[in-house]
Predict the 3D structure of the following.
Amino acid sequence: MRHFLALPAIIYLLVLFYLPFLITLLYSFGFPGFTLKHYSEILDPLYLKVFINSLILASITTVLCFILAYPLSYYIALKAGKWKNFLLLLVILPFWISFLLRTYAIMTLLTPLGLMFTFPAVVIGMVYDYLPFMILPLYASLERVGRSQIEASYVLGAKPSQTFLKITLPLSKSGIFAGVLLVFIPALGEFVVPTMLGGTYATIGTITWDLFLRYHNWWKGSALSVVYMALVLLAITIYIKRSERIEL
Amino acid sequence: MIRFLVLLIFMFLYIPIVYVVASSFIDGGEITTKWFVKLFEDRDIVRSFYNSLSIALLSTLFSVILGSFAAYAFLKTNKRFESLFYTPIVIPEITEALSLLLFYRLLSFPLGFYSVLLGHIAFNIAFVFIIVNARLSSQLRSIEDASLTLGADEVQTFLRVTVPIAMPGIIAASLIAFTLSWDNFIKTVFTTGPGFQTLPLLIWSQAARGVVSPSLNALTTLMLFVSLFLAYLYAKISTKRE
């Protein structure tokens, strides 16, 4: 009986979230007709270049975020002492501010530096926006590692580098994986940052925007979106499979 | 060494924000509030402000009601239905936004206030569900049973046991839902129609061309303060609970 209380919310999501996805799928096959031409058009070298652009940008962003976030998360989780809660607050605070505002904030600094509309500007903006998404899962996994296992390793005679490579790093693997996923997937479809800071740097996100809001090409836009969704679902499935294995 | 690096990273995260806020109070080396005064003299901005506010308030109201009841209904008993609420969180927003646009077009649903509101409620329901669901103790059932055994009827139990227990979660969820809706850009830009603008859309329409201006700084600062105030309330509520 009580379960019926969930019905309004479920119906709402089915109609305004799940059904629209089905419609996108239909459009990608040429609704109201049927054709595969929109998918084959996406394999065109022009679009392939956009996919590669997006992959490059998302990869660089993910790697840089990881390099910056790991020592930071390590410090907060294991070394910060009484500062821990305050530093954690500083990491969480940006989550309350939208990408649009944060990108504008970095834009006001990039403008006097003369970096606007360059590839480095896009990369800086991406790292700036996505860094907290990498820090938080890394912090959570390093926190779980805890000091005692690291100290045990020292007591048993391991050098700091050995301890890091054989204890800390492997034990934080689940956090690394989660962080990479949380940054890489949305970075692949990002369009606020490349548009505001990069001028003409085309990514999956900016092309989707153009196809929908500028050219009103719903069919090709849908096909592109379906391919992107497929990539996302693939990544999430791998993540779930992996985290099950780690838990075992 | 590592401390220095940590300091540098935090500077990287916060200098741009501090810079925007500071420059919105400065005019030619002097401290001023004139950029903010100008904001409130601009009719477009004031109208967009009210639009943003009403969308955020209404979407919070509806999503909190729907999402909380759904969390209460399941109380961690049905994993399969629960996952229905997780998908909207993991899916990239842009794919959700464009799907909704196609849906509205297919129905010839007029684009504007209502199309934006309905879209915001959809993703907020998912967030509210997850937050309230996480805060509702799985022991709630047995506490309710105790109340019923002790002679309270079902309505009394709901109002005096269930609601107070769920309240901190509901308040936390409302604050997050409001924030998400208040500064949402992607979903809004895809589902809005001519003539309906919110503050993020206004910022975008100027900033997308790479233009930095004092009035835009002031607008950004204003939006930042609202978000940070909500974050402050959230932190206050969560520490009080502990």
In short: Residues 157 and 163 of chain B are 9 Å apart (CA to CA). Chain B touches chain A through 75 residues (CB under 8 Å).
